[in-house]
Specification:
mainly alpha; 417 residues; Growth Hormone, Chain: A; Major facilitator superfamily (MFS) profile domain-containing protein; transmembrane; globular; 16 helices; membrane; transmembrane helix; MFS_dom
Length: 417
C-alpha cells in the first residue's frame, strides 16, 4: 500500500487533535475534577456518578436530534467544512471556559461540559463524513485505523504533561492546588485541539457533494424524508446501524464513565491517570492491528472479536475490587476499543452513497448517540437501584450480545475489501 497522502494525513491529524479532549476532558481530568467538586458540595458518590450519566444522556440526545438534519444540509457543496468549523469552535471555546468556572460550582461545570461535548461530538460527525472525501474504499480500513492510532498517541503527549502537573500539585512540590492544576489541563486541551486542527482546515475539502438548490433547508428535509421512506433500499446499511446502536453503546459508556467508576471503587486519582495513560499507549498499536487484520479476515469478524472482549470486560467488572483488577480491565479495553471504533467507521463509510455521506453519517451519529443515552442511563439506574457501581457496568453486557446477534444478519457481500 502506497504512502498516505497529504489529505489522508491531514484528516488523521484531527484525531490527534481532538482525542486530547476525549482522554483529558471526557475520560480523565474532568470526571475527577467534577467528582471532587460534587463531593465537597455534599453529593454522594453514587449520585454524582448518576448525575454525570444523566448529563451525558442529555447532550447525546441533543446531538442525536441534530445529526441527520444538519448532515443532510451539509451534503450541499461547501457546507460540510462550515458545519465542522462551527462545532469545532463551540467545543474549543467551552473547553477553555471550564478553566474559569469556580471549582465549587459543580452544576455549572456540568452545563459547560455539556456545551463543550456538543461541540466535540458535533465536529466529529462531519469529520467522520470527510473520510469518503480523503481516501478510497480500499484504503478506508487503514486510514480510519491510522486516525484512531494517532489519536491515542497524540492524546498522551499533553496528558503526560497534565499528569505531571497534577501529581506535583498533589505532592505539594509545586505551589498549585489540584483544582488549579485541573484548570491548566482544560486550557492545554483547548490549545492542543485548536493547534492540530489547522491541517484539517488547510488540506481537506469536500469532494463529494450535492449542488446547491434555491431552498436548501426545505430540500434537505425532503431528502431526509425520502431516505426514511426508502429505508428498504438501504436495508444492509440500516441493519448495520441497528447492530452498531447496541454494541457502540457499551463501548461509549465504558469510555465516558470509567474514571467515575474507578473513583467509586476507591482507586486513587493518580493511579487512575496512570492507568488511562497506559491504556492509550496500548490501544494505539491494537487499532492499527485491527485495521490490517480486517483486510485478511473481514471487518465483521474483527468486530465480533472486539465485541467478545467487551463482553468479558462487563462480566469481569462485576467482580472487580482492587487496583490490579482495574489494570486488567483497562488492558482488555485497550485491546479492542480503537479497533471497534475505527472499523465501524470505515465499514459504514463503504456502505454509504458518497454524495450523501453527511446525511448518512448523521444517521450514524443518531444511532451512536441514542445508544450513548441508553448506556449511561442503564449504568446510572442500576447503580442507584443496587447501590453498586459494579452491577451497573455489568448490565452493559446485554447490549453487546444484542449487537453481535444483529451484526450476524448483515450480509458480508455488501462490503468488499
Amino acid at each position: 500500500m502506497k504512502q498516505f497522502t497529504k489529505e489522508e494525513n491531514s484528516w488523521v491529524f484531527y484525531d490527534w487533535a481532538n482525542s486530547a479532549y476525549s482522554l483529558i476532558i471526557t475520560t480523565a481530568v474532568f470526571p475527577l475534577y467534577y467528582k471532587a467538586a460534587a463531593q465537597n458540595a455534599g453529593v454522594s458518590a453514587a449520585d454524582s456518578t448518576a448525575y454525570l450519566g444523566y448529563t451525558i444522556s442529555i447532550f447525546t440526545f441533543i446531538l442525536a436530534m441534530l445529526g441527520p438534519i444538519l448532515g443532510t444540509i451539509a451534503d450541499y457543496q461547501g457546507l460540510k467544512k462550515r458545519f465542522f468549523a462551527f462545532f469545532f469552535a463551540l467545543g474549543v471555546s467551552f473547553t477553555a471556559l471550564l478553566a474559569f468556572i469556580p471549582s465549587d460550582q459543580w452544576l455549572i461545570l456540568l452545563i459547560i461540559y455539556t456545551m463543550s461535548a456538543i461541540g466535540s461530538n458535533g465536529a466529529t460527525v462531519f469529520y467522520d463524513a470527510f473520510l469518503v472525501d480523503v481516501t478510497t474504499d480500499k484504503r478506508m480500513n487503514r486510514v480510519s485505523a491510522r486516525g484512531f492510532s494517532f489519536g491515542y498517541i497524540g492524546s498522551t503527549i499533553p496528558f503526560i504533561a497534565i499528569i505531571a502537573i497534577i501529581i506535583l500539585a498533589q505532592s505539594k512540590i509545586i505551589p498549585l492546588s489540584t483544582a488549579s492544576a485541573s484548570k491548566i489541563a482544560f486550557l492545554m486541551t483547548a490549545i492542543w485541539w485548536g493547534l492540530f486542527t489547522i491541517p484539517m482546515f488547510r488540506n481537506v475539502r469536500q469532494r463529494f457533494y450535492i449542488q446547491r438548490e434555491a431552498n436548501p433547508i426545505a430540500e434537505s428535509f425532503k431528502r431526509l424524508l425520502k431516505t426514511l421512506k426508502e429505508i428498504k433500499k438501504y436495508r444492509t446499511l440500516f441493519l448495520f446501524l441497528l447492530a452498531y446502536f447496541f454494541y457502540i453503546d457499551g463501548v461509549g459508556t465504558v469510555i465516558t464513565m470509567s474514571t467515575a467508576y474507578g473513583t467509586d471503587l476507591g482507586i486513587r486519582s493518580s493511579d487512575l491517570l496512570v492507568i488511562l495513560f497506559v491504556t492509550q499507549v496500548v490501544a494505539a498499536p491494537f487499532a492499527i492491528l485491527f485495521g490490517r487484520l480486517a483486510e485478511k479476515f473481514t471487518e465483521k469478524k474483527m468486530l465480533y472479536a472486539g465485541i467478545f472482549v467487551y463482553i468479558i470486560v462487563c462480566i469481569y467488572a462485576y467482580f472487580l475490587k482492587t487496583t490490579l483488577d482495574f489494570w486488567i480491565l483497562a488492558m482488555l479495553v485497550a485491546s479492542s476499543q480503537g479497533g471497534i471504533q475505527s472499523l465501524s467507521r470505515s465499514y459504514f463509510a463503504k456502505l454509504v452513497p458518497k454524495k450523501n455521506a453527511n446525511e448518512f453519517f448523521g444517521f450514524y451519529n443518531i444511532f451512536g448517540k441514542f445508544a450513548s443515552i441508553l448506556g449511561p442511563l442503564l449504568v446510572s439506574f442500576t447503580a442507584q437501584l443496587t447501590g453498586n457501581t459494579n452491577a451497573g457496568v455489568f448490565s452493559l453486557f446485554i447490549l453487546f450480545i444484542i449487537g453481535m446477534i444483529i451484526l450476524a444478519r448483515v450480509p458480508d457481500s455488501d462490503v468488499s475489501n
